Amino acid sequence: MNILITGSPGVGKTTLVKKVLALYSGQVAGFYTEEIREAGRRRGFKVKAIGDVEVSTEGILAHENFPGPIKVGKYGVNVEEFEKVGVSALKKACGGHHLIIIDEIGKMELYSEEFKRIVEAVLDSSNSVLATIGKFKNKFVDEVKKRKDVITFELTYRNRDGMP
In principle, which of 68, 115, 140, 160 could form an S-S bond with 76, CB 3.0–4.6 Å? Predict the structure, then answer.
């Protein structure tokens, strides 16, 4: 089963993923993202590997101070670091885990062609998948949402507490 969680930015998609991780008793692998906050202000995003995947466990996905050629809003995207942590975790996760977490299929992550390939492979695998996915128009995102093997839920402020 492949479950997609969509919703507006800041509604709590990553918080939902963390709650599911705390409740789930089986094997889990993949990655999630987390805000980097400095002086109470969001300055960027980390990517963190989940499970015993033998890859780098944490890296910087994007930051205001990252110059990179790729920008999403005010954040420079570190595709190389994302692939080293997030994409590597997904590759390792395909080897028999019961639940694979992808947080998130979003604008920053989609700059990695390797990420797109592994997302398709993970969704095609026999593993169960819980993924957060952006609420924006994009050919790849639209194709993922249209797959017959996915169920999509929209997270809102009204339903987020009961969703896990």
Answer: 68
Q: Residue 68: pLDDT above 80? A: no
> What pTM was computed for the model?
0.92
Q: How far apart are CA 134 and CA 4, in angstroms?
A: 10
pLDDT of 133 over the 80 cut: yes
Looking at CATH, the fold of the domain delimited by 2-154 is given as Rossmann fold (3.40.50)
In the chain, what are the domain boundaries?
Answer: 2-154
Name the nearest CA neighbour of 108 among 136, 77, 130, 85.
77
Sheet of 2-6: strand order equals: 71-72, 75-77, 58-63, 41-50, 28-38, 99-105, 128-133, 2-6, 150-154
Q: Collapsing DSSP states into helix, strand and coil, what is residue 53?
A: coil
